[in-house]
Amino acid sequence: MSRPTGRHCAAALLPAQWLSWLSWLPWLWLSLALLVACAAARPALAAGATEAQQVERGRYLARIANCAACHTREGGKPFAGGLPIRTAVGTLHSTNITPDAATGIGAYTLAEFDRALRQGVARDGKRLYPAMPYPSYARMRADDVAALYAYLRAEVAPVTQRNPAPQLRFPYGMRSLLSVWNLLFLDDGPVRTEPARGDAWNRGAYLVQAVAHCGACHTPRGRLFAEKGLDERSRHFLSGASVEGWSATNLTGDQLTGLGAWSRADIAEFLRTGRNGHATSFGPMSTVISTATQYMSAGDLDAVAAYLKSLPGARGEDKPFRPDPATAQQLHQGRFDLPGARQYAVFCMPCHGADGKGFARVFPPLAGNPTVADPDPASLVNLLLDGAVTARVGTAATDYHMPGYGWTLDDQELASVLTFIRRGWGNRAGPVTEADVAARRRALAAQR
């Protein structure tokens, strides 16, 4: 009788019933591997939260982070991407973040989604351009990232859609350079807390700096397109910037061009409704309010307002606006001595009044309006050329449209009426030139 060797030797020493169990080991290992993979794909729940609660929290975060607005092209499927984003160095398109396995995030694990959101690196290792505000999302908490991931995978319909390749000037199209950019500019530390400031201030700081990524539009950028400041310690943070031909206003405490004259309640009202006693929304901000901030809870709106009201003025404007009645007197008397006065009386005065005070919460005041006083007149030029619409919100019966006058007024006439507005009623902003209007008219025509 020959002596068994190798595995036969081991088998000869085991009872027969053990051999039947051993035959199932490969299947047991496979089942265990699948369980581990499923556990890795499933986001960890916050303490005491159910899966339904986590998804609902993710839905709220997706709204206030305004994910749909950037990741949905006009007429397209929600979150399927394809929205053109025009930058100073070319055009790129937002990505598909539906749970489609081939073209979206359906194959992403939570860790891979987290890396894309907070570090700007896709599942395949491709670097994302910082037009996607991952420098802000880098400061989001891990449990909020997990909730957002859970919502996108559970509630968003998958869409198969590949989007156009970016068209960027050399060398900005070289994704490999973004690894160096991240080393220089990506701060993935948590949002700084200050216990002495209270819960509302700290919650507002987290929302403004991370989730709502306000700095992505309202903070100026340097030559390499990084934000010049990431929080209140920088004098540049939220001090105003240019975005796709619009002037994103100063959100610091400056009295004339910032929020210095607004109360905490004024800020919350504007974010909820798109209007208050000082201003009415227009342009890209109307979209932000319609799709994002109107859905913020009352507590979060107050927290954002508390944080913004704590920011010192970036431009040193410590004296409040002082109205001057001379402009209203001249208009009431039918005197059109100043260039632009006649055009103002015909096209603007029926809504905004001879006194420039408008009609609160419908037609905004022009006297003392931060957008009117902004050193950059880009938004005003856009408004006069193409018109605008207020935010579409659940708190108002309808939105309001301001007509554009680019079709009936030439560049010099538009420049004159804008200069009249920026210097009337006590406003002290600089003039608008014919060249300013002509350049913006050409840019808008190229986008159509």
From TrEMBL:
Compartments in which it is found: Cell membrane
Domain annotation Cytochrome c: ranges: 53-156, 199-312, 335-425
Keyword presence, Metal-binding: yes
Keyword DNA-binding: no
The entry's keywords: Cell membrane, Heme, Iron, Membrane, Metal-binding, Repeat, Signal
Domain of life: Bacteria
Protein name, entry field: Cytochrome c
Organism listed in the record: Cupriavidus oxalaticus
